[in-house]
Design brief:
alpha+beta; four-stranded antiparallel sheet; 4 strands; elongated
Length: 179
């Protein structure tokens, strides 16, 4: 039996547990019980290393989070995945490609959108916040430099001091001397 797989774009290894938990939450909200979730993650969800092709099942993706609670040997599969390395020892990849195979009465595109929507929204908000902070700091630095320049060259802060009014002596404004 051939199963058609839809692929989520490559994600970092350290994001696999977050993806697993968001998929679990979304599927639970969709009315799937724990037995069905176990079946879905064991047979229909998998991740594959981009470089070496090592496969990790959906259950193993969930095992990464439970491995964080238990001390593991650094050479163990879960230990390497938890630290952001490939499950295969010696592979230098930091990205996995996640495959979602067809399951009866399950629309992966909707679930994928819903599961990644929260993560994408949070990432977009933090990126937007960082951008606004950087922009505000840049504008503040430019204003401070302009203020410093005005004080150094003109001796006063513009708009805070009355402009000088120069009066011309009428006697000095006479005709030009002959040449």
């Amino acid at each position: 039996m051939t199963q058609i797989a839809t692929t989520i774009a490559q994600i970092g290894i350290q994001r696999l547990p977050a993806l697993h938990s968001s998929l679990t939450e979304t599927l639970s909200e969709g009315g799937f019980n724990s037995v069905q979730l176990s079946e879905i993650f064991s047979a229909y969800v998998s991740a594959e290393c981009v470089l070496c092709g090592t496969r990790v099942t959906g259950e193993e993706m969930g095992g990464i989070t439970s491995a964080a609670e238990k001390p593991l040997a650094p050479d163990s599969k879960f230990g390497r995945l938890r630290h952001g390395s490939c499950a295969r020892s010696g592979c230098i990849s930091a990205y996995y490609r996640v495959h979602l195979r067809e399951y009866p009465n399950l629309d992966w595109t909707k679930i994928r959108e819903k599961a990644t929507e929260d993560d994408a929204f949070k990432e977009a908000n933090t990126a937007r916040r960082r951008l606004l902070i950087r922009l505000a700091l840049g504008v503040a630095v430019i204003l401070i430099l302009l203020l410093w320049r005005c004080i150094m060259y003109y001796g006063h802060v513009p708009l805070l001091q009355k402009p000088h009014k120069y009066n011309i002596d009428p006697a000095s404004a006479g005709p030009d001397p002959p040449r």
